[in-house]
Amino acid sequence: MAIAPFNYPVNLSASKIAPALIGGNVVMFKPPTQGSISGLLLAQAFAEAGLPAGVFNTITGRGSEIGDYIIEHKEVNYINFTGSTPIGERIGKLAGMRPIMLELGGKDAAVVLEDADLEHAAKQIVGGAYSYSGQRCTAIKRVIVMESVADKLAALLQAEVEKLTVGDPFDNADITPVIDHASADFIWGLIEDAQEKGASALTEIKREANLIWPALFDHVTLDMKVAWEEPFGPVLPIIRVTSLEEAIQICNQSEFGLQSSVFTNDFPKAFEIAEKLEVGTVHINNKTQRGPDNFPFLGVKGSGAGVQGIRYSIEAMTQVKSIVFDVK
Q1: Which UniProt key words apply to this protein (predicted)?
Q2: Which of the residues are catalytic?
């Protein structure tokens, strides 16, 4: 069973379907409710490529209405899901003894040390935080920076965010409306909480329906929701720290463990930090991102279960059987 999300309805569907088919499986595919047309066009492409009828099947509908039924169906013997952590946890409970692969939420941090190339870091962080309006599990969702360089980095981040365009996706704007009103309301709640608790807004705080202008907050403290919760929108908090140990501790206190970035010119130290971070992938001097589909892609803790990537996915969706023949 392949269940895909709205934000990459083709790529994150194909990355489940193709390895399953290569492994010799029959696939039931549920495209996202808010991306069903893309999913059905993908299914049509497989059919036109000559895939036999019945090998690749689609089912549409709201997950809240049909999700439990399809997950618990006795004919489903493997579940590959991308979506929110609460839904992933529910799937894990419903799956019972059946194997699952879960790609869930994240609170990816960009850790910036004193010796980092701050201009480069700022460009990478803004690109990683605000692309697709922040609606990516691999988006940078918080900046953890050493106090000694925080003022300079904050100014550089502010300058980069001010370059972003806001508007209609058909006009190729950088920041466009988020997926629905519920998502916009949740994001706005995080913004209001940060403002009420004293965070410094470095950008205009503005909303029109589902369209939220890119928000950048400095002096974010750990009692603010935006320091811990995944906004899935164009909001980026800056958290100042006085030591590397404090930075690592804040990273690892998260319920999520998808990816992190580390910006430094001390490469031995970068690898030392990478070893200590409780995440599936660490990017050194680059933004967090999925990468090519042949790369291993995984999360730990509340960010997922199993390893994706063409080779890893095929292996995960292949049932091993040993047959021992005794010749006398």
Answers
A1: Oxidoreductase
A2: 103
211 beta partners: 208
pLDDT of residue 224: 98
Answer yes or no: is pLDDT of 291 > 90: no
* Cα 198 from Cα 215, distance rounded (Å): 15
CA distances to 92, 217, 304 from 308, in Å: 17, 33, 10
Q: Name the residue among 251, 257, 260, 261 with its Cα closest to residue 303.
A: 257
- Which contacts qualify for 295-302: CB closer than 8 Å, 24 or more apart? 297/103, 299/102, 299/103, 299/104, 299/106, 299/137, 299/256, 299/257, 299/258, 299/259, 300/257, 301/254, 301/255, 301/256, 301/257, 302/85, 302/89, 302/104, 302/105, 302/255, 302/256, 302/257
What is the DSSP-derived secondary structure letter of residue 100? E
pTM of the model: 0.94
Go through 236-251 and write b for each residue having 16 or more CB atoms within 10 A of its CB, e for each that does not. Answer: bbbbbbeebeebbebb
Helix (H) or strand (E) holding 44: helix 36-48
Tell me what pLDDT residue 294 has. 85
CB atoms closer than 10 angstroms to residue 191: 24
pLDDT, average across residues 154-175: 97
Is residue 56 classed as helix, strand or coil in its secondary structure? strand
Question: Do residues 278 and 257 lie in contact, with contact meaning Cβ atoms separated by under 8 Å?
Answer: yes
Cα separation, 58 vs 191, whole angstroms: 38
Residue with tokens 């430094």: 264
Query: What does the block give as tokens for 19?
Result: 């390895």
